[in-house]
Amino acid sequence: MKRKLLQQMRNEWRSNIWMCVELVITGLVLWGIFSTFIFLDRLHQEPEGYDISDIYVGYTGCVSRDAATYKPYADSLHNRFTDLETLLANLSNNPYVESLGAGNNALPYTWNYSGNMFAADINGTRQTYTGNLRHMTPELVRTLRMTGVSGETTEQLAEMIENGQTILSLHDGAKDENDPMEWRGRDAFWTYDSTRVEHIGAIIKGIRRNDYEPIFNGMILQKLPASWFPEHVAIRVKPGKGSDFMASLKSEDLEFGNVYLSTVTDIKDLRDRAQMNVSNDLSTLTVSTLFILAAVFLGFLGTFWFRTQQRVPELALRRVNGATRRDLFRRLLGEGMLMLAGTLPFIAAIGALILYKVDLSDVIGSGVTSAIGWSGLPCAAAALALMITAGLTYPALKAMKVNPAEALKDQ
Hints:
Order of helices and strands: HHEHEEEHHEEEEEHEEHHHHHHH
Structural class: alpha+beta
Number of helices: 13
Strand content: 15-25%
Largest sheet: 6 strands, mixed, barrel
Number of strands: 11
Shape: elongated
C-alpha cells in the first residue's frame, strides 16, 4: 500500500503529467479571459469628470423654407437662433427641468473623432496635442456637471468656456505626445493656422464614446460660436423626475417658430445604442467563458472519475485500516491541489514570457499596467481549484460508498 501521497504521485507520474499539461493549458486560457474581464471592468468603473444621471437629449431641427409649414420672419431681428432661444427658455420653465445646454459634437457617446491638432513649445520642445473638437455653451458644462482633474469646479469650467478659453482632456492614445497636464495654463496654436492662438484653461477627463473603450483621442472643448446652430440639447431634470418630465412634454413644448426638437430620449439610451456592438461582444465573451468553464469542469469530472474508480480497492483498504471518509476525501483533494500547485509556476512562467514579448498597450490601444496583465492569474488559479474540488467531489463520494468487502473481494 502506498502510504505517502508524494510517493504515490511519483509512482503514477505518467497519468499525472497529462493532468498537469491539461492544467497548464487551461490555466493560461483562463488567465487571458479573466484579465480581459478585469480590464473591461476597470474601464467601465473608471470615474468620469461629468455626470449623465437624469440627462435627456434632444436633437435640433429647422423647418425648410420650401415647406408648407415654414413661418416667414417679420423682421431681421428674428431668425432660427431667436426661435431656438425661445424654445429653450420655454423648456427651462418646465417644473421638472433643472438646467439645459446646447452644443455640437459635445455629448458623451457620440462617435465623431475628426482630428484636430494643437502645437506648443513645452520645456524647450515643440509638442503636439491631437483631439476631437467639441463645441458647447457654458450652460452645457453646467448641465453635464463637468469638473477638472486639478480641482476646477463646474462653475470655473463654465466661466472658462464663456471667456473663450480652451479645455483639453486626458487620453490614452498618444504615446508620442507629452503629458496633457503640461498644457494647462499655456497658449497653444492650431497646426493648420499658427496665427490662431488659444489659451488652455484646464484639463478634464475624456468624454466617453462607450463605457468599455479606452479614450483613444483627446478632446478639445471650446465655446459654441454665436454663428453656429447647435445640433443637440442636453436637459438635466430633477433627480428621479425623468418619467414625469417625459410625460409632461407636449408637441408644442418641443417646437417654436421654425425650430423643433426631435427624438428626446434618456442619454442612457444613447449610451446603449453607442455601445451595442461592444455589449454584444461582451455577452458573447461571457457565454464563451461559461462554455469553456463547463467543458473544463466536465473534463476534470471525467478524469477524476476514471482515476478514482481505479483506486476503489486502495480506498477500501484504507477504510479497513481505520481511515474515515473525510480522511480519504482530503487525500484525494490534496493530490489534486498538489498537482495544481506544481503547475502554477509553469503557468506563471509562460504567462510572464507572453507579457514580456507582447506589448498589450499596442494590442488594446491603451495603457495597460502590469497589474492588469497579472490580475487574471489568481482568478485562474482560484477557478482551477474550484473546478478540481467540484470535479473530484462526486467521484470521491461515489467511490467511498462502495462496501470495502465488495471492493477487496478480487484483490
